[in-house]
Amino acid sequence: MKRVTARLATAVLAAVVGGGFGAAVMSPASAGAAVRTAPVTATVATTVVTKAAAASCATGKYQKQVEYWLKRIGGYGAVTVDGKQSAADCAAIVKFQKRFGISPAKGLAGPTTWDVAKRLGMTSTAACKAKKKGITFCVDLTHQTTWVMKNGKVYLKPTVTRTGMNNYETPAGTFTINKRTKKEWSDPYEVWLPYWQRFIGGRGFHQTTTYIHDKWRGSHGCVNLLEQDAKKYYSIGKIGMTVKVVGRRPGT
């Protein structure tokens, strides 16, 4: 059915652009008629394409919940909170999934997408109590999110993180960045840590080396980041900058 719909949309568009479903040469009179009716035909084509796009995006178990949080967060496109998948909903969900490294990014509102959207939506940037001057890197252990404040205002919006699992907890408190290397080798775990910014002991920010949404895996105390976030944090960070860690990771 999807293939038939897609072919129909292509055929309709061809009629608008090429002058008909065939390649016949039109007379001036018939050409004028085609121009006059083209807007109507184009509208039909757009409708067919939109319906095909919506049909290609399945409705997930948490559709309405995801719609609610995406609407509240904003920035990912128009969504309607009705629990029904539309082309606009699908586009917004896919954009959100791609931004936060959720796989597969196909618009299905599954438990991971719902969990990430809810955590981001429930994050209070004021909880960091950032300094009024300068940069403060904030980590919310409770919601497993992180963001950056500058001069007391949000500089980088909350994004996802993964902190220390049970027995390897990331401690709450106020710290300072004391070491930075673009690629740090971890002796205990024999792995490279890209965009490393240490702030206490052997713990620091770095790009995740595994799928960040594998929550049960956790980290060994570090603040894991998606690649794009790790790069951005590294570009902002400097020795001596403040890191504030608040809350407590569930299960630790």
Automatic annotation (TrEMBL):
Residues annotated as the enzyme's active site: 206, 222
Record's signal peptide: 1-23
GO molecular function (one): peptidoglycan L,D-transpeptidase activity
Cited Pfam families: YkuD
Gene Ontology biological process: cell wall organization; peptidoglycan-protein cross-linking; regulation of cell shape
UniProt xrefs under PROSITE patterns: LD_TPASE
Start and end residues of each L,D-TPase catalytic domain: 135-246
Highest taxon of source: Bacteria
Keywords from the named record: Cell shape, Cell wall biogenesis/degradation, Peptidoglycan synthesis, Signal, Transferase
GO annotation, cellular component aspect: extracellular region
Entries under CDD domains matching the protein: YkuD_like
InterPro entries: LD-transpeptidase, LD_TPept_cat_dom, PGBD-like_sf, PGBDSf, Transpep_catalytic_dom
Pathway(s) this gene product operates in, as recorded in its UniProt entry: Cell wall biogenesis; peptidoglycan biosynthesis
SUPFAM superfamilies registered for this protein in UniProt: L,D-transpeptidase catalytic domain-like, PGBD-like
Keyword Transferase: yes
Protein name: L,D-TPase catalytic domain-containing protein
Species whose genome carries this gene: Actinoplanes awajinensis subsp. mycoplanecinus
